[in-house]
Amino acid sequence: MSKHILFLGIGYTAQRLAAKLLEDGWKVSGTTRNVAEKRLDPRINLFTLHRDQQLVGDAAISDVTHIVHSIPPAEGGDVVLHQDADLGALTPALQWFGYLSTTGVYGDRKGGEVTENAAPAPQSARAERRLTAEREWRQYFQNTAVCFQIFRLAGIYGPGRNVLAQLQAGQARIIDRPGQVFSRIHVDDIVAAVQASIAAPKDGGIYNLADDLPSASGDVIRYGAHLLGIEPPAAIAFEDADLSPMAQSFYAQCRRVIAARTKAELGWRPCYPSYREGLQAIFNGC
User: Fold this and answer.
1) pTM for this model (two decimals)
2) Is 48's pLDDT higher than 90?
3) Residue 59: is its pLDDT beyond 80?
4) Dihedral in degrees, nearest 10, Cα atoms 202, 208, 211, 212
């Protein structure tokens, strides 16, 4: 049987995975809010999906075997789960469903480690909505033949989305808050983990995706400046940084994300175990 993947939301990470699957002969479809604005591989079948629209079932998605869902849930709930049309009825051939969530569901751990066994403790409305969506999708696929997976992603970076680009644009800021670290993950390591799950699915699996070196954002920016051969920006004390409410919410949480189950069950290892390898590869044009 041919493999057909549907991306509910075909953003940055989904596009990287789509490119890999197209190379492997997959049929690829995706949803977007504006088809005309997307400049993607013409082999990708695109559907328009706004928050107030229905996902319409027809022959174009009736043979979908795999789904990756990355659309952030709205205040009223998950845009796909809470529509009138039933996703399962629209995709009768579905075998595997991957939900891209966030490590933000763990909340603040005051610098402590969190594995997949840690109980969620979200501290923002965004993370609360993600956790609710995780639980609702899990319940939706209970007692079905569909393999359901959750991937909790750390901060994503990669080509076109990294501190090198920020430094070159003059937008990088070093916010100095002693003891603050962030976990991050290269987009291609996310792709590799999702592919590993598709190849060896384990129903109900929750997988953290983070590299092996949680680090202060200033360390990452300084290393990026080193690669570019420029001076890093001067550090700004957290109290003087005039951060947006969203940025403040990120700095209000400190945790070291460990991808223990991802490694044990999927045999996954990050190709970029720290920001150093990841930024070096981006700098080299990889």
Assistant:
1) 0.95
2) no
3) no
4) -90
